[in-house]
Structures are given as structure tokens and as C-alpha cells.
């Protein structure tokens, strides 16, 4: 039996690490699988506002370009953070940046908010 690529890759802990959307959409039930996977991604995030906490503390395994931040709860959390951060005075932003430096996977994130 030939190897079939699994479009939803999970880490050793069982959590979703990557979704190959084009491949998944070729499956007869691809859209349903995608919807379930996206809901699962959203459930891993806290159900609260996180003003004052950078997104990488809420989902340390994700990157700034992860699907985590583009759907459901993740999108709401990111939107709330960006709005909160932009409302800070310039000196408060710099203090926050110094307190929470960007990890390597998030390099350029703060600059993208300017």
C-alpha cells in the first residue's frame, strides 16, 4: 500500500503543528476535517482577553504566521492584543518590548504593528 501524506501533522504531544490545506481540500471530507482542525486549534488558546501578554506566551509553539492567529479565538486574541498595543503611548510600547522581547519565530512582529 503506498504511503499517503497526512495533511494534518501533529507533534509528539498530539497537538496540531501543521495543516496542508490544499492537500486536505482534495479529500472528499476535506472541508469538514479542516473545520474540525481549526476548532481544535482555537480550543488550545485561553478563553479570555490577554491585554498585557504577548501572543507567544499564549501559544508558545506557534509562530506569528501560524493559522492559530487567523481563525476563531486566535484571531480575536490577536486583534485584541494589536489594538491594545497600538493604544499604548510610545514609551509604554518600548517598555513592553523590553519586558517581552520577540522570540526568534516572532522577529519583526512589533515593527509590523507600527
Residue share in helix: 40-55%
Mean pLDDT: 83
Distance between the ends: 52 Å
Per DSSP, what share of the residues sits in E-state strands of 2 or more residues?
5-15%
Shape: elongated
Task: Tell me what the structure shows.
- This protein is mainly alpha-helical and 114 residues long.
- It folds into two domains: 1-44, no CATH class; 47-114, no CATH class.
- The chain is built from six helices and two strands.
- It has helices at residues 21-25, 30-43, 55-58, 72-87, 90-99, 109-112, and strands at 8-10, 16-19.
- Strand 1 and strand 2 (16-19) form a beta hairpin.
- The mean pLDDT is 83.
List keywords for this structure.
mainly alpha, 2 domains, elongated
How do the strands and helices of this protein lay out in sequence?
Layout: E1 8-10, E2 16-19, H1 21-25, H2 30-43, H3 55-58, H4 72-87, H5 90-99, H6 109-112
Antiparallel strand pairs: 1-2
Can I get a quick summary?
The chain has 114 residues and is mainly alpha-helical.
Amino acid at each position: 500500500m503506498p504511503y499517503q501524506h497526512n495533511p494534518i501533522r501533529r507533534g509528539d504531544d498530539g497537538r496540531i503543528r501543521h495543516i496542508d490545506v490544499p492537500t486536505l481540500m482534495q479529500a472528499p471530507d476535506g472541508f469538514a476535517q479542516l473545520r474540525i482542525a481549526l476548532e481544535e486549534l482555537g480550543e488550545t488558546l485561553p478563553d479570555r482577553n490577554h491585554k498585557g501578554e504577548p501572543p507567544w506566551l499564549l501559544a508558545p509553539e506557534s509562530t506569528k504566521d501560524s493559522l492559530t492567529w487567523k481563525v476563531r479565538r486566535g484571531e480575536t486574541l490577536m486583534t485584541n492584543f494589536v489594538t491594545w498595543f497600538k493604544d499604548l503611548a510610545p514609551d509604554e510600547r518600548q517598555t513592553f518590548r523590553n519586558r517581552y522581547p520577540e522570540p526568534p519565530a516572532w522577529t519583526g512582529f512589533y515593527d509590523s504593528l507600527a
